[in-house]
Amino acid sequence: MQKTYTKEERAQYFQDLRNRWQAAKDLSQDNAILAAHHEAQVIAGRSFSVASFADVERQLVDLKLSGTPYVDTKTYKAWRDSGMQVRKGEKSKITGLTWIKADDSKTDDDKKTSFTFPKEYHLFHSSQVQPIE
User: Fold this and answer.
1) Of 42, 64, 40, nearest to 52 (Cα)?
2) What CA–CA distances, in Å, run from 7 to 3, 10, 15, 100?
3) pLDDT higher than threshold 90 for residue 126
4) Can you give the pLDDT at residue 12?
5) What are the residues facing 38 on neighbouring strands?
C-alpha cells in the first residue's frame, strides 16, 4: 500500500531537497572538490554537476565509505551496464539529486509556464555489488 502525503509534508520534502542542494553548492566551491570532480568525470567518461558530486561525496564521508562519487557509486542500471549486479537484499544508502523541468499547463491564460523541481535517485556503492555470473 502506497503512503499518501499531505500537502505540507510534500512541501517540506521539496524544501529539504532544495536546502540539501544549496549545501552541496556551497561545498562545491572548495578547490579539492573541484579537482576531484574533474578527475571523476574523466574516469567515469561522462559529465555530472559539481554540486551533485559534492553531495554524494558528503554522504560517502558520513557513511564512512571509501570511493569516488559516480565512479564507485552508480544507479542499479549503471552497475548492470558495467557488468555488475547489486547483491540481493541490498538497499541504497546514497541518493543523488537532479533537477527536472516541467511545464505547467494549468494556468488561466494561454501562456505556458515552466518550473524545475528536485528529484532524488538512488545510488549503490561498489561494496554492494558483485560481477554478473
Assistant:
1) 40
2) 13, 5, 12, 20
3) yes
4) 94
5) none
Angle of helix 50-62 relative to helix 31-44, nearest 10 degrees? Answer: 100
Task: Express each pLDDT in 53-73 by its tens digit.
Answer: 999 999 999 999 999 999 999
Handedness of CA 24, 52, 66, 90 (dihedral sign): positive
Residue 95's CB: how many other CB atoms inside 10 A?
15
What tens digit of pLDDT does each residue of 10-50 get? Answer: 999 999 999 999 999 998 899 999 999 999 999 988 889 99
CA angle, 72 then 53 then 48, to 5°: 95
Query: Cβ of 121: how many Cβ atoms within 10 Å?
Result: 13
Of 118, 2, 102, whose CA–CA distance to 49 is shortest?
118
Mode of pairing for the β-strands spanning 113-125 and 94-104? antiparallel
Amino acid making up residue 28: S
